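Reply to thread "Modeling small-molecule complexes from scratch"

Following up on the discussion above, here's a worked example others can learn from. I took a protein sequence and the SMILES for DQA and predicted the complex. Inputs first:
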Amino acid sequence: MQIDFSSFVLAAATADLADEPAARDHADAVEFRMDFASDPLDALAGYDGESPLIATNRPTWEGGEAPDDAARLDALEVAAEHDAVGAVDLELAALESGDAAAVAEHARDHGTAVVVSTHDFEGTPHRAAMRETLAEASRWGDVAKLAVTAEGSGDVLDLLGATWDAATAGETVATMAMGEAGRHSRAVAPLYGSRIGYAPVDPADATAPGQYDLATLSGLVERLGGE
Ligand SMILES: O=C1C[C@@](O)(C(=O)O)C[C@@H](O)[C@@H]1O
């Protein structure tokens, strides 16, 4: 199933594909956090939901739970072949090191988009540095994603500025500021060109700090006209 990133995609982030029917009303896609799931490839093989999937298998060094081994990338390669998987998520660092290059190529061969991710769990880099990260990630895949940690509204402003600059330069980007101070970025970033938002169906299952639950984010984005 293709995912069209030319307009905003609201992704329900979950480790449990059984959440899909509940997510359907509000979400355009489901982000399957394979690294949080106990038997992700089995779950994927049995998936018969209606929403296209973004397959993510985040390693521990980028805030996830997957061990940093070949099995992590092999599983993503298998996921990329699944009809329901419209995109795989790969970390920029894994692409730059060469480790994930084969997964990206395999995804492309199967018509599966590549989301290139970077996360900063410590803070928010300067606007120019974020702009450069987005440009670099854009070179490696279809959507360049940057999640930072905001300590105040100024950080969010910088992130939105970098988002706007990248989007107006023609790059397809997804940005969000994690943490309490960054929360509102999730609602407004689509207005500045961000093309993916992530939210759990149940707030107790958040996959990053500061996420709104899915129904709330969907309502906010819609009311602000970002969808
Ligand atoms: O990379 C991202 C963005 C995210 O970290 C967020 O802040 O919403 C949530 C993750 O599930 C997703 O893979």
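What I'd highlight from this example: The chain has a mean pLDDT of 97. The first strand starts at residue 9 and ends at 14. Questions welcome below.
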